[in-house]
Design goal:
With 184 residues, this protein is of the alpha+beta class. Helix content is 27%, strand content 23%. The longest helix is centred in the first third of the chain and has 18 residues, at 50-67.
């Protein structure tokens, strides 16, 4: 397991647009289509990363909890599927069913979207406000595979609460840690 931290895209960055094929919908989906009234959460994940597998249930719970409050949610896999076939779109469809994901899980074949977001690891979280400006990029919480911290989603939940309830969000944010994106 590699321990790759987020690159910490500058706060205030405008959300890069995309239109990518969804593994769980039979069409391409854009940022504009997933955008929520209050904000949008973009998550870079993949099917095989132990860090993602460690927190996927919490990610799904967060999506379910906050989509009804006006937060759009989308997950993107940008891994090279030639060297990592377990991250192929077909396997992504299986992953969606297994983990009961009902938000779009998109495949970034060209890796251009990951580069536009300066994504570095899986999972990597980007929260944008209603004006599509980045207000949070960082970790889900302090839990990692094998450490003593339980999964809470506190860091990400606090950030989303700041958007939903119009609260101040601390500019000091901890980077996510996970497997590196598998570049071509």
């Amino acid at each position: 397991m590699s321990l790759t931290p987020s690159n910490m895209l500058p706060l205030g960055t405008k959300a890069p647009n995309f239109k990518l094929q969804a593994s769980n919908f039979n069409r391409k989906i854009s940022f504009e289509e997933v955008k929520g009234n209050k904000g949008t959460l973009v998550i870079f994940i993949c099917n095989h990363c132990p860090f993602v597998l460690h927190v996927i249930e919490e990610i799904v719970m967060i999506a379910n909890d906050y989509r009804v409050q006006g937060i759009g949610v989308v997950a993107i896999s940008s891994n090279d599927i030639i060297n990592y076939p377990q991250d192929s779109p077909e396997k992504m469809a299986d992953f969606v069913l297994k983990h009961k994901i009902d938000f779009p899980y998109l495949y970034d074949e060209s890796q251009e979207v990951a580069k536009a977001y300066d994504a570095a690891c899986t999972p990597d979280f980007y929260l944008f406000d209603s004006q599509d400006k980045l207000i949070y990029r960082g970790q889900l919480d302090d839990s990692r595979p094998g450490n003593e911290f339980s999964i809470s989603g506190n860091d990400l939940r606090n950030a989303i609460d700041s958007v939903v309830y119009n609260r101040h969000l601390n500019d000091v944010q901890k980077p996510s840690i996970g497997c590196n994106i598998k570049w071509k």
